[in-house]
Amino acid sequence: MECAIGIAVNHFPSVHSKAQQVSKSKNIRVFTVSCHSVSVSPAGSVEKPWKVADARLVLEDGSVWPAKSFGASGTQVGEVVFNTSLTGYQEIITDPSYAGQFVLMTNPHIGNTGVNFDDEESRQCFLAGLVIRSLSISTSNWRCKETLEDYLASRDIMGIYDVDTRAITRRLRQVGSLIGVLSTEKSKTDEELLEMSRTWDIVGVDLISSVTCDAPYEWVDKTNSEWDFNFSQRNEETFRVVAYDFGIKHNILRRLASYGCKITVVPSTWPASETLKMKPDGVLFSNGPGDPSAVPYAVETVKELIGKVPVFGICMGHQLLGQALGGKTFKMKFGHHGGNHPVRNNLNGRVEISAQNHNYAVDPESLPQGVEVTHVNLNDGSCAGLSFSQQKLMSLQYHPEASPGPHDSDD
User: Fold this and answer.
1) Which of 125, 261, 315, 383 does the annotation list as catalytic?
2) Is 401 annotated as catalytic?
């Protein structure tokens, strides 16, 4: 169907006589506006020229958040956490520490720079899903190889957008992290999804076993010079390091390699006795997902290595060291996830802006005498670093390799 609407515009606002109207009628302009009928599908539903809400996020508190889907489809359950980083979404979605979690980005625009294959932090995406406000419809980056939507779809990861991420973030800050269910399946009712969220739990679950490597391997990837902050010892092998893979990020290994370390990466269940046979100069306990109390085998391995070889822990490794020393860990209200957390270095008084990703922390009051708290998170006063000189031990709760950034704590 098409219609035409004629609009007459007279450029003479005041007309004093019929003769004047006729003589000046040539100044009247006529505009025609065409309109077309909206197509209707055989079933009778109107086909809209834009994407409509086709997904839901149902939280365990009973709230339902309609959204639009991208990436994979289906139904997935996970713990919802928010990340305050302004950029670096590709490093975030490939960080194994997010296994079992939906990552909600507080920055409203995601997908602007697409994805590439140099910024991945692991062999695959381990997170349960991605929640964002606005999905960029175009990309602008000379390194872009693929759109975020295609990237997640090819890796079977669900994503939703056009949801009020600020409102959800406020709720998580008020009540703490919540279990949620993402679904694009219309056959499932809100009540069914709510029941799924209330019968699933992440506490006490061994998530490390699903992200660790299957067998030991040598790390051979060197850091490209344009991304390297170490110029004095680049690629000069000076130390032999055994790195326990609890969900290790590639940039941690790249940083160690750039400072001259020859690295052997081993699975989370690798026996301490086999590590000692390798005669390493040091042992790294990496970052990783979940509850440190759910992996007692890892704590025992750490115990067996403390005092026999210098050790360093990052994130999950920091928490495991805290438990191995006799301390306790606890689940935080909503954790630390972002690239803008201020940390005070108690050794020199310097404040560093750090990249963090953890839901658990070490209780400093539970640590034995002789263990020093070296770093403190200035947002909430939680323990962000430990050292025990007698045992040649140190650890950090945040990511000193700073991927995706910032780089205050790189050295």
Assistant:
1) 315
2) yes
Give the pLDDT confidence score for residue 7 in this predicted structure. 44
Residue 265 in tokens: 């990466």
Hunting for tokens 């001259």 — which residue is that?
260
End-to-end Cα separation, the chain, in angstroms: 69
User: Does 109 qualify as catalytic in the annotation?
Assistant: no
pTM of the model: 0.86
Query: Per residue in 313-349, pLDDT tens?
Result: 999 999 999 999 999 999 999 999 999 999 999 999 9
Residues 138, 158: Cα–Cα separation, whole Å: 19
Burial 32-69 (b: 16+ CB within 10 A, else e): eeeeeeeeeeeeeeeeeeeeeeebbbbbbeeeebebbb
State how far Cα 309 lies from the chain centre. Answer: 33
Q: What is the pLDDT of residues 246-295, one digit of tens each?
A: 999 999 999 898 888 999 999 999 999 999 999 999 999 999 999 999 99
Residue 260 CB burial class (10 angstroms; 0-12, 13-18, ≥19): middle
**Residue 104 above 70 pLDDT?**
yes
Q: Give the C-alpha separation, 127 to 90, whole Å.
A: 12
How many Å apart are CA 341 and CA 323, to the nearest integer?
24
Supply the DSSP string of 46-92, one letter for each residue: B--SS----EEEEETTS-EEEEEEEEB-SEEEEEEEEE--SS-HHHH
**Peptide linkage before 404 cis (omega within 30 of 0):** yes
Q: Which residues pair with 58 in a beta bridge?
A: 64, 181
Four-CA torsion 329, 332, 336, 342, nearest 10 degrees: -80
The 10 Å CB-count burial string (b at 16+, else e) for 286-305 is bbbbbbbbebeebbebbbeb
Radius of gyration from C-alpha coordinates of the chain:
28
* 375 catalytically annotated: no
